[in-house]
Design goal:
The protein is built from 10 helices and 24 strands. By secondary structure, it is an alpha+beta fold. It folds into 3 domains: 226 residues, no CATH class; 109 residues, no CATH class; 106 residues, Immunoglobulin-like. A 6-stranded mixed sheet has the order 8-12-13-14-16-15. Helix 3 packs across helix 5 and helix 8 crosses helix 9. It is elongated. The two termini are 49 Å apart.
């Protein structure tokens, strides 16, 4: 696809014949590029020469090999300052247009009209190559400081009339590169370029066709699939979905707030059961327009929200970090991910991966009854969905002087609140109900709530409270996203 604006800006992408990937799942993977899902690519070395009219600026994957031949002395001198400051350095300004100002003057080439320049880029160990060129690009640069590596340049090329879309782009891309380098592993490439044009939300190694609006998300793709490279056609959730999850982390970090995945998992209960939704393991080329975005992008944060509700968000991120580092510059499958995460978390999570990845089922839990006798309270929890989950109860005690007796499967959240957890296997015998016996002594219980962190898919969270009068007027709803739905206190 050569996306362009008239005859003065070009963004060639998906523009050359690909060599199919041969892997141990299907042999040669020959799925076509149809637009929504993306190519499954090999890693390799690209040595590319791009012949354009003198005065046109070229950006792309890799490192420019011949700056002396194509850049003016002024531009080369300005570039020398980039890695020493977080400020924006303008390399080519809006008034520097044409041969001798934007670029070197070039030379005539036989059979061609006008003077021309050949830009030479080399990129090693990448799975794609993208580039852009324009007659009147403004060229800005800044840096990101990568832990363990030092500064790397960030390039932004955009049309003069679109400067407002790039005013914050450098700062957003810098934060993304530095944060994700800390969260997962250091950025693996020597530079990052943001390219203006009609493609405004797409990613390639070292290149994002993006302005500031999608800079965080598209930069995140430098981790997956550009370094940890999955089959995007079959398993788009392994790059777009992981990216959506880590965008929540980055968004919170930029605001200097803790990331909060409460309610993400629970909100899937409002989606589950729609017959238009395909399972996440369904080939994205055949997902259908109604649910492609949700299945590929939106559902993974909901899945990992539930996993965080079982093992803790920090444990999920630690295991995911270890998986990412183990599979750098390789092609992991979903089974590699499932087995690695289960092993790293020291849990048998076969049931979890099955229901989230291979089905569209939900939990649909509720508290059916609560009764107290002989100092013990028995809470009857019902499971109407096919997906099992641990039974997590928040128990609120009345103020008083009676001691709260410890329970081995309970932790005190505060002086009046206990969190009681029963393992998921209470459902494995097939029963639809489970009696949770609370033995805290004589202190009266005021309120009980099922799934207090809103992590498990539930169609109607209002029946998670006992007594029923304790339920909020409006239960949590939504399909999840960058911010997620609410989880009432």
């Amino acid at each position: 696809m050569t996306q362009r604006w008239a005859d003065t800006l070009y963004q060639p992408t998906q523009w050359y014949p690909r060599v199919a990937v041969y892997d141990d799942l299907r042999g040669w993977d020959t799925e076509l590029y149809l637009g929504p899902s993306e190519f499954y690519n090999n890693f390799g070395k690209f040595d590319v020469r791009i012949d354009v009219p003198a005065g046109w600026i070229v950006s792309g994957t890799g490192v420019l090999q011949n700056p002396d031949e194509v850049l003016t002395p002024n531009a080369r001198e300005r570039i020398k300052r980039v890695l020493s400051t977080d400020s924006i350095t303008q390399i080519v300004g809006p008034d520097e247009v044409g041969p001798g100002q934007a670029t070197q003057r070039g030379a005539p080439i036989a059979g061609e009209e006008g003077d021309r320049l050949v830009w030479h880029f080399v990129a090693d160990t990448v799975n794609d190559f993208a580039w852009a060129t324009a007659k009147k690009y403004v060229w800005d640069m800044t840096r990101a400081t990568i832990p363990g590596k030092g500064p790397v340049p960030i390039t932004m090329v955009y049309l003069p009339g679109r400067a407002q879309f790039y005013a914050r782009a450098g700062a957003v891309a810098r934060h993304a590169l530095e944060f994700y380098s800390t969260q997962w592993f250091p950025y693996q490439f020597p530079q990052l370029t943001l390219q203006d044009g009609p493609s405004a939300g797409m990613e390639y190694p070292m290149v994002i066709n993006s302005n500031q609006g999608a800079a965080d998300h598209e930069t995140g793709h430098q981790w997956w699939p550009m370094t940890v490279s999955n089959n995007e056609t079959w398993y788009g959730w392994m790059d777009e979905g992981f990216n959506q999850y880590m965008n929540v982390l980055s968004d919170a970090d930029a605001k200097k707030e803790p990331a909060n995945f409460d309610a993400y998992g629970q909100s899937y209960g409002g989606v589950s059961g729609n017959e238009a939704e395909a399972p996440m393991m369904w080939n994205a080329n055949y997902d259908g327009p109604a649910f492609y975005g949700f299945t590929t992008y939106g559902k993974t944060p909901l899945m990992l929200s539930m996993l965080g509700g079982i093992v803790g968000d920090s444990a999920v991120q630690r295991a995911h970090r270890e998986w990412a580092q183990a599979w750098m510059f390789k092609h992991p499958s979903p089974w590699d991910y499932m087995f690695f995460m289960s092993h790293a978390l020291k849990r048998d999570l076969g049931w979890f991966w099955y229901y989230w990845l291979f089905t569209t089922e939900s939990v649909d839990g509720s508290i059916q009854n609560s009764r107290t006798a002989a100092g013990k309270t028995t809470v009857t929890v019902r499971q109407d969905g096919q997906m099992p989950s641990p039974v997590v109860l928040e128990v609120k005690f009345a103020p008083g002087s009676q001691a709260i007796r410890p329970m081995k499967n309970a932790v005190m959240k505060d002086s009046l609140t206990a969190i009681v957890t029963y393992p998921v296997d209470v459902w494995f015998a097939g029963s639809k109900t489970f009696d949770a016996v609370l033995d805290f002594g004589a202190r009266p219980i005021q309120r009980i709530r099922l799934d207090p962190s809103c992590r498990f898919p539930d169609r109607d969270p209002s029946d998670n409270f006992w007594p029923r009068s304790a339920a909020p007027a409006e239960p949590a709803q939504g399909q999840g996203g960058r911010r997620g739905p609410s989880c009432p206190a």
